[in-house]
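Much of our argument rests on the idea that a fold can be written as discrete symbols. In the encoding step, the backbone of a single protein was reduced to a row of integers, each denoting a local shape. We regard such an encoding as a compact summary of how the chain folds. The record that follows shows the chain in one-letter code together with its fold in token form:
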Amino acid sequence: MAVKKKYILVVNPISGDLDKTEILKKTEAFVAQFEVDIIVYETSGNEDEEAIKNLYKIHKPERIIIAGGDGTIKMVAEALEMHNVIFGIIPSGSANGLSVDLNLPSTIEENLAVAFGNNFIAMDMISINGKKSIHLSDLGLNAQLVKNYENSSTRGKLGYALQVITTLNEREEPFSATIKANNQTVNCDAQMIVIANSQKYGTGVTINPNGKINDGKFELVILKNLDLVVFAKIITGNIPVNFDDVEIISTDNAVIQLNVPVSFQIDGEYIGEETELEINILPSQMKVAIL
């Protein structure tokens, strides 16, 4: 008798506005056709990384299915970065930018088929002051929006839309940055600097048209004079970034020094205010199931 494979399903019960009970039921129904045992772990926000590491030691799964957003994916990837495991994604967070970049489907059933499939990509990660980023991090206006969203009671896209108004009302003057990359130094004033491993925000807006998640590079997207209306439309996904006052630097390492403390977020998680970032690419760090 064949030994059943073991997969771990990590569910963030409070991310986004998708019913996680439905995900659990559909996952259990889907795996009935395979010789697979599913071990379910619900995140609590308390020692989740250690719990996932311990589950891996016990069960040695070859695949981890993640039902959550970018922050949940990043947390699980960091917990298991030393192990040869494939990650399947069921996008169900407030920020699902990585799934947008991977062109994952829209339904739970379709995403389960991808998550259990044989196709995967070995994608890069980025180290920023020792913290890992899988998708998009940024300084400035959007990071302030993430902070306001985290402090609000409304989840999902509606929650983000409501906090755009608050963020715009709190908008400060552009900050000054000194960027060292590719043996050059760039001095600039900016409203936002995006540290991009990929192309799109979760809204579908392309912020970094040259981004590839497996090319050994990341991009610094410098948005210098960001019009308020344009920012609101970018965040809510209504228009692409298509204006002249943008500079993009492609590199594998960089240092950003700021004249004042500036709000900073990684993959949809507010980190705090920073005055200096040391950034390095981490090639081929994470295997992710794709179409």
